[in-house]
Amino acid sequence: MKPTTPLVMIADDDTDVTVLLARHIEGWGYSTVIANDKRTLLALLSNYKPTLLLLDLRFGTTDGLELLPQLLQLAPDLMVALLTAHGSIDTAVAAMKLGAYDFLTKPPDLNRLKVSIKHAVEKQAMNRRIQELEEYVQTAPTGIKLLGDSPAMQQVVGLIRSVAQTDASVLILGESGTGKELVAKSVHELSRRASGPFVPINMAALPRDLAESLLFGHEKGAFTGADKSQAGSCELADNGTLFLDEIGEMDVVLQAKILRFLQERTVQRVGSPKRVQVDVRVIAATNRNLLERVREGQFREDLYYRLNVVPIRVPPLRQRKEDIPQLAARFLQRAALSYGRVDLHFRQETLTAMSSYDWPGNVRQLENLVERMAILSPTGEVGPDMLQEEVLSEKLDVKRPPSNAHVEFAEPVEPCVNTSSQFEFTLPSPSGKDGMRLVDQVEKQAIEEALRQTRGNVRDAASMIGLSQATIYRKIKRYDIDLDIFSGDSKIVGVS
């Protein structure tokens, strides 16, 4: 019968020692099993998975240091604490290098032994939790990268499944942050092109003078700096999918070249007279109203109809609030893995408050806020006090667009702490001071530390902690931070 409490296995040929240790360990609430020789030990390990193995360094005729690698090869996750009556620093170092979890002298100090077992139990539980989280995060329906059981999202999923079986061009419409690229990836991964490349390119980020080269490629010497031939995104996507994001921002001249590519499915590199045939499926996305852009003369009508063979509208988060708890839980699990906070979980009041908010930055805003909460939460239980003020008050001054419009919204919430920043701060007391919530205290402290290190340079401070310069200024005003005390005699960059 398998034990129901954490199991400690004791491997020692001295029966007086094993009995005494077992009595103490069981008194602490753990199960024990004893092996007095190597054969018994190996037999027990084939039937049991102990939380901790206490192994005598001189185990009968067997050297514990020689046995340790064999045991870890049989059971890589096994935690072994070596026991010895002749301890030395060299022996302890050798044991640790071989993979020992701990090294204890005989007779062991009972308090030390109790702490060692407790830590082994906690580590085993954490390893199990990490494995569960990894399986949870990686588990998803085949090809579908979207989360949500709401009717609005199920309609999107249905469209994805239908259009994926064809090579029709798809136009994905939706506000910023709704997950348009995830929709495009899902279409690709459910299509016959799934084994081919998925090549995304942000049309709004293309430098005007290099856009044609980046899309269609160039030959060596085609222009200054072209020291070698280079294939463009359209050619790299051969036998796969080309995803043109932010298509509404494309330059009108470039639109004509894209239209020709869609009509002929051929690529002509800059500086080359040859045209190369490619087999590419094109998916485009925009948060703009393209028909309005057509009426304004900013977007070609023939290109619009060429792209808009199958439109897929991704609903904003405020129109599928029932999906918020599921999304928030997935984002928290992912952040927990990233930051080693496997104990994280939401209080119900937190999820209720999040489900009542409209999320103008959509899923991206929700994901950023959850990551921020995972970083700053002082305990494993993420309470509503970790939410930002606008989420709790529901008083954001945001003009919401009509449901059929696709426009950029206000800047999404950004995590206030960039974990790669080269500065430290300490978590203040959860009780708060001056009426400030814990999350605000931490944010203010992080901003002040960044300003201190940059001598009041707001632009550099913003870069250091991962916020925009405009956001930093708003928070400096909100927290009544005096820039003069950080600047010294130097000029504060960016202050007008």
TrEMBL record:
Keywords: ATP-binding, DNA-binding, Nucleotide-binding, Phosphoprotein, Transcription, Transcription regulation
Response regulatory domain: residues covered: 7-121
Database matches in InterPro entries: AAA+_ATPase, AAA_lid_NorR, CheY-like_superfamily, Homeodomain-like_sf, HTH_Fis, P-loop_NTPase, Sig_transdc_resp-reg_receiver, Sigma_54_int
Domain Sigma-54 factor interaction residues, every copy: 146-375
Pfam family, any one: AAA_lid_14
Family matches, as SMART domains: AAA, REC
GO biological process, one term: phosphorelay signal transduction system
Keyword set includes Phosphoprotein: yes
Keyword Transcription regulation (UniProt): yes
Modified residues (4-aspartylphosphate): D56
Example GO molecular function: sequence-specific DNA binding
Residue spans crossing the bilayer: none
PANTHER family in the record: PTS-DEPENDENT DIHYDROXYACETONE KINASE OPERON REGULATORY PROTEIN-RELATED, TRANSCRIPTIONAL REGULATORY PROTEIN
Protein name: Sigma-54-dependent Fis family transcriptional regulator
Organism per entry: Telmatocola sphagniphila
Higher taxonomy: Bacteria, Pseudomonadati, Planctomycetota, Planctomycetia, Gemmatales
